[in-house]
Amino acid sequence: xxxxxxxxxxxxxxxxxxxxxxxxxxxxxxxxxxxxxxxxxxxxxxxxxxxxxxxxxxxxxxxxxxxxxxxxxxxxxxxxxxxxxxxxxxxxxxxxxxxxxxxxxxxxxxxxxxxxxxxxxxxxxxxxxxxxxxxxxxxxxxxxxxxxxxxxxxxxxxxxxxxxxxxxxxxxxxxxxxxxxxxxxxxxxxxxxxxxxxxxxxxxxxxxxxxxxxxxxxxxxxxxxxxxxxxxxxxxxxxxxxxxxxxxxxxxxxxxxxxxxxxxxxxxxxxxxxxxxxxxxxxxxxxxxxxxxxxxxxxxxxxxxxxxxxxxxxxxxxxxxxxxxxxxxxxxxxxxxxxxxxxxxxxxxxxxxxxxxxxxxxxxxxxxxxxxxxxxxxxxxxxxxxxxxxxxxxxxxxxxxxxxxxxxxxxxxxxxxxxxxxxxxxxxxxxxxxxxxxxxxxxxxxxxxxx
Length: 451
Hints:
Blueprint: E1 11-15, H1 18-21, H2 34-39, H3 57-71, E2 75-77, H4 82-85, H5 95-110, E3 114-115, E4 118-120, H6 126-130, H7 138-154, E5 161-165, H8 167-176, H9 191-210, E6 216-221, E7 225-227, H10 232-255, H11 261-266, H12 271-278, E8 285-288, E9 293-296, E10 305-306, E11 309-310, E12 318-320, H13 337-350, E13 357-361, H14 373-391, E14 396-401, E15 421-423, E16 430-432, H15 434-448
Parallel strand pairs: 1-2, 1-14, 2-3, 4-5, 5-6, 6-8, 7-9, 8-13, 13-14
Antiparallel strand pairs: 9-12, 10-11, 15-16
Helix pairs in contact: 3-5, 7-9, 8-9, 8-10, 9-12, 13-14
């Protein structure tokens, strides 16, 4: 049974990020990032992987672009390493760093592949991290400067831009729970990090357009929140969790308001003025989707860890295990209909304020080196669910699977594999999996019918 036909001009792509793939941590004048420093702390990377090697993309990028061309991919979503371009986070620009992305963009264009760079995929320059990172308002202004620098160099060949990736995860995992860089455990006092990332996005949109860039979006994670019970306490907990992980980011971006005045009051600076910047018009909105979350009132049987991350006591909500679904190797439930529901809910919530959508991440961790049938089933199911959302009237323009190759999965190291292409971390040899062939054949079939 083949995947249904997608609309004409639908964009098919794959994704990667700089910290997870590039390696070459000290090559070409690159400065350290907060993630480099965090990963160097004993015990932070669970399997002990040397994250500084990545997948060797800095050296193997031509090989990886050839793999993209073999897929027939329309676009490649990669990220630009801020500390490779501006090692200090502000101040002198590293020309060799820009040269690398110049070569990468040229290589993609030579193969007819649209470059779709993400300007921030979590690798904050270490000097900015040490000065407070996203808790410091100045970081937002430094990010806008960096965005303009990259656009001035690449905007003549880059027709699609992404400002920030998953500000919710940076806030939650990096500043609230301490599971990711920079390792802060501030709980609700982490909210300024959310506000400053959103401000950075809005300032960057303006800087990009001033430098001649267009077709600008952002990649925001969205997870349907299921209520664990019928009590008022369960409903309150689920609504709060939905607000913290979904609406705290989408509402300011798409409506110019925070979802609750109590949250707005916790944000730093001239919030009303900032919201006008944050809600600067987007050309499109990116959705990263992996799985739903089951949430209820805090009880002793709530999970003390979620998706591999520790959950502290005293939170006003409790995460529950979702039963009855297959799990990925990350323990995440495989729920394709959650993608459909997410997209339909976004359209219903924001109406005409919702710009065209792209799925900027969707994939699964499955350690099946060659015959990765579980990944094929995952992609097949989610693309069918995506098609259902389009049939329901949601304007979705493209899909980027996560990820092109296996990569360094942050604190998990090399043991969680998301790629269509297997990476041997000893030799850095690339070997396409069966899912690579499946995705290639899907794209070819879609094009055969003029789509």
